[in-house]
């Protein structure tokens, strides 16, 4: 019996897609990700797509939910972000501490707010141990770098096409004068032949009358 592919709804347009086509955080399809602006949450500092155009503040769904439930947050004792809605640590750091153990120093910001992740996770950030914000900044930097490389590659390919076109044009220009020169030589030779024929023609007529 053939397997049936499971489809999931986009949280905005509700059209069905494969899970890998939806964003992991908000489950938005590609079209909706383009439609709604990407903004930064004023609490957790994470980027998200703001679906509500009437919202006065940029607050992600998770922080908005905790804010309604627990009230105004304070700075987390681990990541120092304004995300501790309940207790001294934020939900994310509380979960990470249970899963990975006590926090350690981040290789970039040097603050004790990173957690020991798997080797597979480290490979994504060049083998470094990074906190959440430094991980996001690293990925943004690499994304922009790849974009510049792609743009540079596109410009380079376009330049190569132009150069090839110019080379072909120059080849035509080199061939054309050569052909023109040959034609001129042929025309000159034909003119000389006609001139010789005119010169020899009276002599032949005189020779014929002499006979």
From TrEMBL:
Source organism, top-level taxon: Eukaryota
Stated family: Belongs to the FAM76 family.
Biased composition annotated in UniProt, kind: Basic and acidic residues: 160-170
GO cellular component, one term: nuclear speck
Region (Disordered): 149-170
Pfam families: FAM76
UniProt organism field: Amphimedon queenslandica (Sponge)
Magnesium listed as a keyword: no
Protein name as it appears in the record: Protein FAM76A
Keywords: Coiled coil
InterPro entries: FAM76 (IPR032017)
Lineage: Eukaryota, Metazoa, Porifera, Demospongiae, Heteroscleromorpha
């Amino acid at each position: 019996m053939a397997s049936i592919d499971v489809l999931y709804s986009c949280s905005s347009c509700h059209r069905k897609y494969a899970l890998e086509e939806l964003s992991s955080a908000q489950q938005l399809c590609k079209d909706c990700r383009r439609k709604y602006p990407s903004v930064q949450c004023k609490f957790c500092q994470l980027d998200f797509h703001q679906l509500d155009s009437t919202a006065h503040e940029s607050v992600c769904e998770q922080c908005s939910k905790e804010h309604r439930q627990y009230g105004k947050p304070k700075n987390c004792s681990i990541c120092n972000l304004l995300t501790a809605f309940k207790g001294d640590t934020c939900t994310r750091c509380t979960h990470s501490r249970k899963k990975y153990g006590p926090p350690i120093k981040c290789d970039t910001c040097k603050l004790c707010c990173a957690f020991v992740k798997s080797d597979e996770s480290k490979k994504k950030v060049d083998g470094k141990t990074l906190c959440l914000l430094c991980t996001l900044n690293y990925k943004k930097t690499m994304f922009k770098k790849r974009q510049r490389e792609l743009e540079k590659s596109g410009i380079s390919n376009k330049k190569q096409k132009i150069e090839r076109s110019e080379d072909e044009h120059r080849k035509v220009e080199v061939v054309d004068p050569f052909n023109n020169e040959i034609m001129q030589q042929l025309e000159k030779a034909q003119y000389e032949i006609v001139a010789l024929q005119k010169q020899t023609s009276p002599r032949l007529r005189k020779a014929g009358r002499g006979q």
